[in-house]
Design goal:
Elements: H1 2-8, H2 23-34, E1 45-50, H3 53-62, E2 74-80, H4 94-111, E3 115-120, H5 125-135, E4 142-150
Antiparallel strand pairs: 1-2, 2-4, 3-4
Helix pairs in contact: 1-4, 2-4
Length: 171
């Protein structure tokens, strides 16, 4: 049940340094990502899978909230392609679409008993600048987020946070 995966998903900040995330698991995460909805089916995203320890450490060094990359097995960088949505109202919905694709990765990882942590890059200029430098990304490709992926070294149970006070019923 999808609600089980949603409840199981947590932001994991400690990973088993000996944990293994297989290429097949990564492909499942990316397949889930590419099944996300997007405005006019433009699919305004690309992905960079980073296993290189030196690069993971480098990202952790400049990103204040991505220190967990020091123990994660890998990172998936979601790169936004706003040009795919030129001509759409409001210059497109690429931020929403990249958020949806990111959430799909997080939920599929929970289903595979992998841990993840969504680390925002956009709209923080220095984070985006550093990622562009590392991967040689041109200005028309926007580093949206980095997702730490690994075998969790910490264990959390399911959580429930339904709050009736945040719901307005119009009947």
């Amino acid at each position: 049940m999808i609600l089980d995966a949603i409840k199981k998903r947590r932001s994991i900040r400690k990973y088993d340094p000996n944990g293994v995330v297989t290429d097949e698991q990564v492909k499942e995460l990316l397949e889930a990502a590419m099944l996300a909805p997007s405005a006019c089916n433009t699919r305004p995203w690309e992905f960079i899978v980073v296993r290189d320890r030196a690069i993971l450490d480098k990202i952790a060094d400049f990103h204040n909230f991505a220190k967990m990359l020091k123990t994660a097995s890998l990172a998936i960088i979601v790169v936004a392609l706003p040009d795919t949505q030129k001509g759409l109202p409001g210059e497109g919905m690429w931020q929403h679409d990249c958020g949806a694709t990111t959430q799909n990765i997080l939920l599929q990882a929970a289903e595979l008993n992998l841990g993840t942590c969504w680390c925002g890059l956009h709209p923080v200029e220095n984070y985006m600048t550093e990622i562009r430098k590392i991967f040689g990304l041109p200005k028309n490709k926007i580093p949206f987020c980095a997702i730490a992926v690994g075998v969790p070294a910490e264990n959390f149970g399911s959580r429930g946070k339904y709050e009736e006070s945040k719901v307005t019923w119009v009947r």
